[in-house]
Write a structure and sequence with these properties.
CATH superfamily: Vaccinia Virus protein VP39
CATH topology: Rossmann fold
Number of strands: 8
Radius of gyration: 17 Å
Order of helices and strands: HHHHEHEHEEHEHHEHEHE
Strand content: 15-25%
Number of domains: 1
CATH class: Alpha Beta
Largest sheet: 8 strands, mixed
Oligomer: single chain
């Protein structure tokens, strides 16, 4: 138990360090695609990206364009888990409008600072950002109409707890619309003990079939796989491409619903 807790702490530190680097030095070579070019190849429309400040967009580290499902409507209350430098957060703020509200959470100080600057630049008073952990969401039960996330949950060891927390904070009939990294093949336990490999977005991922089962066990209904993307084809690292291919790692867009009560 003690060793498990220590590993979790090391994973969190490695993830924070990696994404601090993405925030402060976005032009360094990373093992995963970063920035405006990454957003474009993943399908983000140029007219949407043109609304995002360049200093936010340069640290974009999402894994798919999950907004293609049109999950957010005017007036919705939205939570963005792992809001990063703010690209998806700002898009959500624009979509929900003045009558809506968007909350972003992240654990990386530099990313939070960048996102807050972007919110101020865009004059989006409907957005708030706080430092918080997805495993312990600091929100009341049944707060949000929509929860979004992009490439984050694979970085968190206790995914069941995260899915349970998301289910808790969603209102009845609420939508969980997100993208993440999943696997087609199991990863060795030895690899899962390496915090650095967690930060690089492969070994923390779960096999797709079990990932979807965890969402179902958390209480979600109408779970739909919208799209699978060969995300690691866009990686600048040949080694990462080979590891991703070995485990059949890819990104996935999922839309799920919390039933009515």
């Amino acid at each position: 138990m003690k060793d498990k807790k220590k590993l979790r702490q090391k994973i969190r530190q490695a993830v924070c360090q990696m994404y601090e680097e993405v925030s402060t030095h976005p032009h360094l070579p990373f093992h995963f695609p970063v920035g405006k070019t990454a957003a474009e190849v993943l399908g983000y429309p140029k007219d949407v990206l043109n609304k995002i400040p360049p200093y936010c967009l340069e640290s974009f580290a999402g894994v798919a364009y999950h907004f293609k499902t049109n999950p957010i409507g005017p007036g919705d209350t939205v939570l963005d888990i792992g809001s990063g430098s703010g690209t998806d957060l700002l898009i959500a703020g624009i979509l929900t409008g003045k009558k809506g509200k968007v909350s972003g959470i992240d654990i990386t100080d530099a990313m939070i600072a960048k996102a807050k600057k972007g919110v101020k630049t865009n004059g989006l008073a409907n957005i708030t950002i706080i430092k918080a952990d997805a495993e312990n969401l600091p929100f009341k039960t049944q707060t949000f109409d929509v929860v979004i996330s992009n490439g984050v949950i694979n970085l968190i060891p206790d995914k069941k707890k995260v899915f349970g927390e998301i289910f808790r904070v969603l209102k009845p009939n609420g939508i969980f619309n997100f993208a993440d990294i999943v696997l087609g093949k199991a990863i060795s336990e030895k690899s899962r003990q390496d915090p650095q490999l967690w930060a690089e977005c492969i070994v923390g991922a779960t096999q797709e079939v079990w990932y979807i089962e965890m969402i179902k066990q958390s209480g979600f209904e109408d779970i739909e796989v919208i799209e699978r993307v060969n995300y690691f084809d866009f990686s600048p690292s040949q080694n990462t491409k080979e590891v991703a291919n070995q485990y059949k790692a890819h990104s996935i867009i999922i839309k799920a619903k919390k039933g009515g009560e």
